[in-house]
């Protein structure tokens, strides 16, 4: 009974997962662009701000990149699992296409994993870049202050 209800959710398909990953990709891209603009513009006012204020400004929204970088592969994997379950459920119903239907479903499902990685990899790279840039900016500022 419960399994049948869960399977009805599975039959929705991989599309909702892909839409979530597309949204995450757009948000991640927006955060990366916004952070690059902030890093470019803050250079002028570094001497006027305290180190905690600089850190607060520069670290803003980096949690989004970290969260997306860590979770996007799992969301993609979830989509893949849904797709594989759907493919096997189709096969169990005695589809006239048999193995071809399953292979097509599995290859379609793997797109979700690829999409998850597509979101995660740039997010993690950007996050690490910004964290290093913050560290170097703060060290430079502290050296100038002393």
From TrEMBL:
Domain named MotA/TolQ/ExbB proton channel: residues: 57-142
Main location (coarse class): membrane
Pfam families in the cross-refs: MotA_ExbB
Topology within the bilayer: Multi-pass membrane protein
Places the protein is found: Cell inner membrane; Membrane
Biological processes, Gene Ontology terms: protein import
Keyword terms of this UniProt record: Cell membrane, Cell projection, Cilium, Flagellum, Membrane, Protein transport, Transmembrane, Transmembrane helix, Transport
Signal peptide: none
GO cellular component: plasma membrane
InterPro entries from the UniProt entry: ExbB/TolQ_transport, MotA_ExbB_proton_chnl
Residue ranges crossing the lipid bilayer per the database entry: 6-33, 62-89, 109-131
Family: Belongs to the exbB/tolQ family.
Protein name according to UniProt: Flagellar motor protein MotA
Native source species: Sulfurimonas hongkongensis
Lineage: Bacteria, Pseudomonadati, Campylobacterota, Epsilonproteobacteria, Campylobacterales
């Amino acid at each position: 009974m419960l399994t049948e209800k869960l399977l009805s959710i599975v039959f929705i398909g991989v599309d909702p997962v892909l839409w979530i990953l597309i949204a995450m990709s757009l948000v991640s891209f927006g955060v990366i662009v916004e952070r690059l603009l902030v890093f470019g513009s803050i250079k002028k006012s570094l001497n006027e701000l305290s180190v905690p204020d600089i850190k607060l400004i520069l670290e803003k929204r980096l949690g989004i990149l970290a969260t997306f970088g860590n979770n996007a592969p799992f969301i993609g994997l979830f989509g893949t699992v849904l797709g594989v379950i759907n493919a096997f459920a189709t096969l169990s119903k005695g589809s006239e296409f048999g193995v071809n239907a399953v292979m097509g479903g599995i290859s379609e499902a793997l797109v979700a994993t690829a999409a998850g990685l597509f979101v995660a990899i740039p997010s993690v790279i950007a996050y690490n870049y910004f964290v290093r840039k913050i560290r170097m900016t703060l060290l430079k500022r502290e050296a100038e202050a002393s």
